[in-house]
């Protein structure tokens, strides 16, 4: 008997701005992602929003403008997903395809038509679409004209966008998520909240105000979904990095508890439990703030309470360790966040510490806390693949990583956790969010495209393609 329940949602995950391309086709407007360069500057911009950066949307022709050209090749790609046996496919809708400037009152029909086609193609292959409404690509005008999510007008614009897509696809799409990695704004307010230098993105007051506005917008999307159909599932999406105290020093233990509260739990606590957790007081005080510094109405708090999400989607790539004393512990990068090196773990080429057991811990922690179904909607190993002369990639390292994480999920299910599905990140190679380059690959499918945008864009099955096909066929790993 498989460790995984019948109907478990095996699949893969992508995001519009990292694979679609066609950035000016079908009336699409520009998004914040179109105005970011690839390479080192990108990292500086997303992680230090006060970095000297001027938006110049005419300057970059690659990577977001081209992606992997899914806009024209979606049929071929979805057929490959079907060949692997995908039960679901997680993707996002580019907001600026549907509302090119973000603040229009009427949607762009050509943009919607593209998603009609993608969804119908999935359904024709018995693949359930899982849609992220907003994944790191606010329409650029909403960042430039309105200052991103700190501006409460965005609630109204998002509500219109969410209503448009939920209404149009309610009969075809059952699984939704409101914002990708909503908590990541703690580190990357540019990508998550559309905050650009002029909006004071490094000012925590703005980040908290933006979060509040996003929480309200998310609750409104849940309300719309509930009114449309009873069987729609709307989840939050959290970037989860299991966090350990470096040692048994009580100071480190306390710091770790607070790290978990502030990063892993804060947004989920609001979106799942429907209210700000008690420790928000401490968290705000850390930045010299109180609730009085934020614009929050009683009506909004009531809405949060009334419309919590019904499942928790989360990404899991790595864990981190917390050390508060002065002991010398060289830091590692970790999903773009800091942390100290854990002597028990190895890391990816980008310094992300590989920790399958941490996933079992994450699943238990989240389920204990919320008692709502969980969905691992991103997981995977970013690696440099070296194809042979036939473009075949023997990616055993990727198989090893995924296998260990699937075992950890099976362990958590045996622990009693309610897990709905698993969609490894970048099931087809795509542009990396942090580097803006192609050379950091996650896919089961190799795409012939390099960091300069050169290549045929042809698709090739990697060794992991056949391995994952077997996993899905067996509903898990063979004994
Ligand atoms: C998550 C994002 C994705 C994705 C992934 C891998 O944080 O939701 O958009 O790209 O991380 O990150 P990267 O592409 O930087 O390796």
Spatially, the strands of the biggest sheet line up as: 1-2-3-4-5-7-11-12
- Give the topology string: H per helix, E per strand: EHHHEHHEHHEHHEEHHHEEEEHEHEEEH
- Runs in which pLDDT lies below 50 for 5 or more consecutive residues are none
Bound molecules: 6-O-phosphono-beta-D-galactopyranose
Q: Report the average pLDDT across residues.
A: 93
Task: Report the total helices.
Answer: 15
Note the gap between the termini: 10 Å
The structural class is alpha/beta
List keywords for this structure.
TIM Barrel, 479 residues, two-stranded parallel sheet, eight-stranded parallel β-barrel, alpha/beta, 39% helix, binds 6-O-phosphono-beta-D-galactopyranose, 14 strands
Question: What's the arrangement of secondary structure elements?
Answer:
Blueprint: E1 9-13, H1 16-19, H2 40-47, H3 70-84, E2 88-92, H4 95-98, H5 109-124, E3 128-134, H6 140-144, H7 153-169, E4 175-179, H8 189-193, H9 204-228, E5 233-239, E6 242-245, H10 250-273, H11 280-286, H12 298-306, E7 311-315, E8 319-322, E9 346-347, E10 353-354, H13 356-370, E11 374-378, H14 396-415, E12 419-422, E13 445-447, E14 459-461, H15 463-473
Parallel strand pairs: 1-2, 1-12, 2-3, 3-4, 4-5, 5-7, 6-8, 7-11, 11-12
Antiparallel strand pairs: 9-10, 13-14
Bound molecules: 6-O-phosphono-beta-D-galactopyranose (BGP).
EC number: 3.2.1.-
Pfam family, one: Glyco_hydro_1
Organism: Lactiplantibacillus daoliensis
């Amino acid at each position: 008997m498989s460790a995984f329940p019948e109907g478990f949602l095996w699949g893969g995950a992508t995001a519009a701005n990292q694979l679609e391309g066609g950035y000016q086709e079908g009336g699409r407007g520009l998004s914040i992602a179109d105005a970011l360069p690839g390479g080192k500057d990108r990292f500086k911009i997303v992680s230090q929003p006060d970095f000297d950066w001027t938006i110049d949307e005419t300057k970059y022709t690659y990577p977001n403008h081209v992606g992997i050209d899914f806009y024209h090749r979606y049929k071929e790609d979805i057929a490959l997903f079907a060949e692997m046996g995908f039960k679901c496919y997680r993707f996002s809708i580019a907001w600026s395809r549907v509302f090119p400037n973000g603040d229009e009152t009427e949607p762009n029909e050509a943009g919607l038509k593209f998603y009609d086609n993608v969804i119908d193609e999935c359904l024709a292959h018995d693949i359930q679409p899982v849609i992220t409404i907003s994944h790191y690509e606010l329409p650029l005008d909403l960042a430039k004209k309105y200052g991103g999510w700190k501006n409460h007008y965005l609630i109204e614009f998002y509500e219109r966008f969410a209503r448009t897509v939920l209404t149009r696809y309610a009969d075809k799409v059952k699984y939704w998520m409101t914002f990708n990695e909503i908590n990541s704004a703690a580190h990357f307010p540019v990508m998550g909240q559309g905050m650009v230098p002029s909006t004071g993105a490094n000012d925590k007051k703005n980040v908290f105000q933006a979060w509040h506005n996003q929480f309200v917008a998310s609750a409104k999307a849940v309300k719309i979904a509930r009114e449309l159909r009873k069987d729609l599932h709307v989840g939050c999406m959290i970037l989860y990095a299991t966090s350990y105290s470096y040692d048994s020093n009580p100071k480190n233990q306390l710091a770790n508890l607070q790290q978990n509260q502030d990063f892993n739990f804060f947004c989920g606590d609001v979106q799942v439990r429907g209210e700000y957790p008690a420790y928000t007081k401490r968290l705000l005080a850390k930045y010299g703030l109180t609730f009085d510094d934020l614009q929050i109405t009683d009506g909004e708090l009531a809405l949060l309470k009334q419309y919590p999400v019904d499942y928790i989607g989360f990404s899991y790539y790595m864990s981190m360790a917390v050390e508060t004393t002065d002991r010398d512990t060289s830091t590692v990068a970790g999903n773009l966040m800091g942390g100290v090196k854990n002597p028990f773990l190895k890391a990816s080429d980008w310094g992300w510490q590989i920790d399958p057991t941490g996933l079992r811990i994450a699943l238990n922690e989240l389920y204990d806390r919320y008692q709502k179904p969980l969905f691992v909607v991103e997981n995977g190993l970013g690696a440099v693949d070296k194809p042979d002369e036939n473009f075949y990639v023997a990616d055993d390292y990727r198989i090893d990583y995924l296998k260990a994480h699937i075992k950890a999920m099976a362990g958590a299910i045996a622990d009693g956790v309610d897990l709905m599905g698993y969609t490894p990140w970048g099931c087809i190679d795509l542009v990396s969010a942090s580097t803006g380059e192609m050379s950091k690959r996650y896919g089961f499918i190799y795409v012939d495209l390099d960091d300069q945008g050169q290549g045929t864009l042809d698709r090739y099955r990697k060794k992991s393609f056949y391995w994952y096909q077997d996993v899905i066929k067996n509903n898990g790993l063979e004994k």
